[in-house]
Structure formats: structure tokens, C-alpha cells
Amino acid sequence: MAAVESGEAPKVDKDKIKAEEFKRKSRHEIRKERELDEARKAGTAPAEVDEEGKDINPHIPQFIVKAPWYLGMEKPTLKHQKAQPEREKNFVDMEKEVVRRGLIKNQSVTKFRKGACENCGAMTHKKKDCLERPRKIGAKFSGQGFVPDEYIVPELEKSFEGKRDRWVGYDSSRYREVIEDYDKLEMAKAKLRADKLEQDVDEDEEEQEKEEAPKNQGSEDEYKVADEEAVDAGQKFDAKKRITVRNLRIREDTAKYLYNLDPNSAYYDPKARSMRENPFATQGKDVTEVPYAGDNFVRYTGEASTISQAQVFAWEATQAGADLHLQSEPTKLAIMKNSVEKRKDELTTEHKQTILEKYGGVEHLEAPPKSLLLAQTETYIEYAQDGSLLKGPKPAIPKSIYEEDIHPNNHKSVWGSFWREGQWGYDCCHSFIKNSYCVGEAGKLPPLPMTLPVAIVDSDEAKAERKRQKKAKNEAKKREKEEELKKAEKKEKTDSAGDEDDEKAARLAKALEAEERAQKEAERVLAEDERKRKYTSMHETKMPTEEEMEAYRIKRARPDDPMAAAFL
């Protein structure tokens, strides 16, 4: 062991040590070693002792306690885990070693030296490693502006602590600049405090002069001063020291944690004296009825949400590169936020309009009224017990495709509303003649007795009959003319429809021929070799017409049709 400490290589009988190392142990010996190891860990047996008489922790693994065979350790030890003395001699003492860095001071170079940097003229690096700004004419050719050489840091063999020392080679004189900066700042603050103190003294002298002057004010001014003192009585404020003491909670107020003593209610933070949730939430009370609704209630009411949104916008704008601050520049922030939101709405509208122009569907965005959409209205309607309507508009009667409620010749009812003795008539005047003029209630009266001579009565009836016949003829002629006009218009429409049908048939025939040609071309292309096919990227693609779609439906193959093979 002395040979190891002195640094000399011990004389080791390697064959003997190998034989002992790899000697096979019996089961009994292995069991004894295991029981001894367990007893040492449990503390019932004394710990193992190294060469220096120190106890070895039994919980240390064997692969750490056991030394390599080439060290020649006959007893258990931990010296092989520590730094060896012969190696520590090579370590540099970083406390005594001074490592210089930077440029060599007081070095004057007047001419270019061979092997120096062509850019700056330093001997410690080459042109490709130079950190100076590349010059248009280097120091090699200009002969001016030579930079001093740098200190070359030697490669030192450091110990474990030396490799991890952050302050190795630090020059303490560099910290003098930082101390000087702080000293200048403290001097400036002291000067400002002295100027402020002199100004406060002058103000106090002016106030004392005003107080010593005769007071000519009336009792009203005295009442005002008393009111101001009463307002400021609960706050300690010193104008000279500019220190405000925060008032404590008024003793008469109920503490937040006493509103609801249920342990499962809102959580009270004693450190911050805050209760964020509503303590009355489990009791089913309205927020407006409770004396305290939680700290978060104030955050989500009034303009608190607007301010929080503005703060988030300021943070996002700052991350994007804009210089915004909510407290220092609120107007600038509000203007920029409004402009950004306006631009965002414009882009959203433009994007929506572009999609609608490209794909259509504007008619689906126009929502019908709520009365039609939900079958609900706000119109008040009241019904009786039998289902009859008492208040409200009458329900609309559905109409048919025919003309309704048309009353010609001053009639109040329609033709066919009256029936008697197998004849139809008008209910308003009981007239059985369809083209008659309505006489009202007079037509419902029974006929007058026949008191006039027969000849006169017959002549009046004959005149009335002739008038009716003449009127009927005129109306018949008028109806004939209208029917002729309708027939002529119908004939013109039929002729034009026939021409359109002919044109449509011609277009369909052309589309069928084109479809046949396309099918033949497709069969030809499919029959060819894939490597000899032509590119189809230059083919014109457009929306097919109705005739082309009809031709495709006619000509397309239908494998599920059982009669398809009969037409091949």
C-alpha cells in the first residue's frame, strides 16, 4: 500500500491474484458471505474495516468496494475510488495560476510581421479566423491600424472542481466599472432627494405664512375644512414621505369566510384574503340579492372584460413586434385594436363573399321569419271553452287555384249559393238568371197580383225579353271574340314550342354522334399499349350541356339490364 501512496508501481503476483479471484467457492461459503452481508446491513454484525481502520458502509455495492485485480489490494478499501496522488501532481492550482485573456496592452507594432493576419496584423491568428471587420485594404498592404496580439490561453489539466469553476481567470478589476455606474446612480438619487426636501421646506414656510395671516373667511369655510378632515380621518397620508397606509377592513363588516360556514362552499384564501367564487351559490340565491358574490363577480361585470381583452391584445401585439402598453398608451391601443378588428371583419366578409360567388347558396342564408321557422308568434289569441275565437285575428281560409269572391252585376253572393225547385241562383236576390242584375231584398218578395190588362203586361214582358236577348247576344259575341284571341295565342305558342322541339332534337342528335365518337375513341385508347398513350392534360374541360348529358344517359352501358345483350 505504501508503494501506491508513494506513486511507485506495486509488485503484484498476477497469477496468484487471478487464481484467488476466480477460485470457485462452495455453497456453504457463498451462504455464509451472504448471511454476513445481511447481518452487516441490519446492524447486528460489525461493519467491514479498510486498511486505515475506517468502517465501510455495508450498503455500498460490491462492484464499488471491490478493487481491480491489477492494483494488488488484499483487503477491501475505497482508495481506488479517489483521485490518485500521482495524477494530482499534474493538476494545476487554479487559485495560484493566473490565466490572462484579451489583448496585450502597451504593444506597439509599426510594420507587418511575417505570418501575421493579413486583415488586422495580429500574430495570434490567421485571416480566416480574424474577428475584426474585413478591411478594404488589409494591414498587410496598408501598413496601418495594426491590432495588438491576444493572450493565448494554455491548455491546463484541471481537477474536477477546476473544470467546473465559473470564475476561473476572472479579472476583478472589470467589476469596478459596474460599481462606478451604481455609485453615479446613487449620487443622482441623493441629489434629487435633496432638491425635493428643499422644495418641501419652501412649501411648508409658505403654508405657515398663510396660516399666520388673518382669517376673514366665514363659518362656511370652517364647515368645509371640518368635512375634509372627517373624510381623511381613516387614512394615514404623509405628503413628504409619499407613503400611504392601506386601511384595514372595518370591524363592523362581516368577513368573507363567515357568509357560508359550509366547508364545501367557496374556498377562502387566507394569504391573499380572497374568495373568488360565490359563497351563496349552493343556496340558490340570485346574485343581486346577496351581499357578496365573490371576487370574480367584479371581474366579469362592467368594463372589466373589455379591459382584459385590451390587455390580451396588447400582449399579442407586443409578441408580434408592436410597441403597445395598456397603461402608458391607452388611446393608441384602443385605436389600433379598433382598426385590427375592423380589418378582420372586412377580411371575413370578403372571404365569405368569395365563397358565395364561387359556390353560390345565398338563398339558403336568408332565414325565414321566426313565425314560419318555429311556427310561433307573439300575437295574442283567446278562445272560449267550446273552441270559438274570442280575441285575436280570425284564421285565414285557404284559397284554391280558382277565382273566388267575385260578385258581378252588384250581387252580394256567388252564383250557386241559392237552390230551389231544381234551379241554382243567387242567395242575395233569389234570382235564377246568371247574368241578371241584383235587385237586393226586392227579389225575395212574392210576386205582385196581376191587375194590369193582359195585352199591356204581355207587351212589357216582351220588351224585357228582347232586351235580355240582345244583351245575351252581345255578351255571346264578346265571349266568341275572346275565345278566338285565346286560340290564336295558343296556336302561336304551339308553333314556337314546335320550333324549339325541333332545335332541341337537332342538338340531341349532334350530341349522340359526339358521344358515339367519344366512346369509340375511348375503346381505341384502351386497346393501345399504356406506354403509347398520349397525354390528355391539354383537353378542354367544361360543364356538359343538357343534350350531352341526355346523350350520355342514352348511350351508357347498363350491365344490370337483362335485355342489354339483345341490342348489342
Question: Characteristics of this structure?
Answer:
3% strand; 568 residues; mainly alpha; 6 strands; two-stranded antiparallel sheet; single chain
Quick structural overview:
Helix content is 42%, strand content 3%. By secondary structure, it is mainly alpha-helical. A two-stranded antiparallel ribbon has the order 1-2. A two-stranded antiparallel sheet has the order 3-4. The chain has a two-stranded antiparallel ribbon with strand order 5-6.
Oligomer: single chain
Instruction: Encode the helix/strand succession as letters.
Output: HHHHHHHHHEEHHHHHEEEEHH
Which secondary-structure class do the elements indicate?
mainly alpha
Choose one word for the global shape: elongated
What is the count of β-strands?
6
Ends apart, CA distance between termini? 109 Å
Question: Mind summarizing the main beta sheet?
Answer: 2 strands, antiparallel
Mean pLDDT: 79
- Unreliable sequence segments: 1-9, 222-247, 452-457
Strand content: under 5%
Contiguous helical run count: 16
Write the SSE topology:
Blueprint (H helix, E strand, L loop, with lengths): L1 H5 L7 H8 L5 H16 L19 H4 L19 H4 L50 H4 L17 H4 L11 H38 L6 H13 L5 E2 L4 E2 L50 H5 L4 H17 L9 H30 L2 H4 L4 H4 L8 E2 L5 E3 L26 E3 L2 E3 L28 H74 L18 H10 L13
Description:
With 568 residues, the protein is mostly helical. It is 42% helix and 3% strand. It contains 16 helices and 6 strands. The protein has helices at 2-6, 14-21, 27-42, 62-65, 85-88, 139-142, 160-163, 175-212, 219-231, 295-299, 304-320, 330-359, 362-365, 370-373, 454-527, 546-555; strands at residues 237-238, 243-244, 382-383, 389-391, 418-420, 423-425. A two-stranded antiparallel ribbon has the order 1-2. A hairpin with a 5-residue loop joins strand 3 (382-383) and strand 4 (389-391). Helix 15 (454-527) crosses helix 16 (546-555). The longest helix is centred in the C-terminal third of the chain and has 74 residues, at 454-527. The two termini are 109 Å apart. Mean pLDDT is 79; it is low at 1-9, 222-247 and 452-457.
